[in-house]
Amino acid sequence: MFKTLGNLFGKLMATHVQLHASETCLECGSQLARDAGDNPLTAVWHCPNPDCPPQVLKRAALWASPEAMGIAGCDTALVTQLVNRGLVRDAAEFYRLKFAEIASLDGMDETKTRALWDAIAASKQREAWRVLFGLGIPNIGAAEAQALCKHVTTLEDLFAMGRERLLKLDGVTEVMARSVTHWYGDPVNRKLVKGLEKAGVNFKTKL
Ligand SMILES: [Zn+2]
Questions:
Q1: Residues forming a β-bridge with 33
Q2: Whether residue 102 is found in the same domain as residue 137
Q3: Do residues 47 and 32 touch, judged by C-beta distance below 8 A?
Q4: Residue-level pLDDT at 11
Q5: For the chain, how many structural domains are there in total?
Q6: How far is the CA of 54 from the centre of ligand 1 (A)?
Q7: Dihedral through CA 89, CA 141, CA 160, CA 162, nearest 10?
Q8: Is the pTM for the entire model greater than 0.90?
Q9: Ligand 1 mean position to 21 CA, how many Å?
Q10: What is the CATH number of the domain that holds 99?
Q11: How many whole angstroms from 106 Cα to the centroid of ligand 1?
């Protein structure tokens, strides 16, 4: 009985894995991937290409959202336009937008352009935890970002800490420490952090 069930389970798993292993991302054609160690029956499959258009859009929309940087008037429709036109590919590019580029977007008049221009500039002064949350680091939600920021005076200090030092901090879990160090270990992300700093986005946790 158990052997039969085991065989059946094994077969189901094999079918499931095969089914997904051959699937590619409908948006960019990349081979889908799943996190190592996950149960194949419950695993979440994802596109591993960071430049996949929906992922770029998702990251940009999170950055502008009221929960993160709160760029007033920058709703999903507007972010979609910015991403689709290649004007915004990461968070730092919001701060490199030219006035004329904003004015060229659909539905923009002088007043709306000025308002968005000012809203983007104003977002540079948000609390550091919002910046950290807005980066969209896996497993770092608003609460985790706030917990992490309590221990440092600037985000640079946080990123400079290795996994070991992060783990010693109160309220920082293994998953959080690993996520932050893994994310910052990617040169693309380090470049993004530099770009935000250069743009004048607030990194200080105590204003
Ligand atoms: Zn993709």
A1: 46
A2: no
A3: yes
A4: 47
A5: 2
A6: 7
A7: -120
A8: no
A9: 14
A10: 1.10.150.20
A11: 27
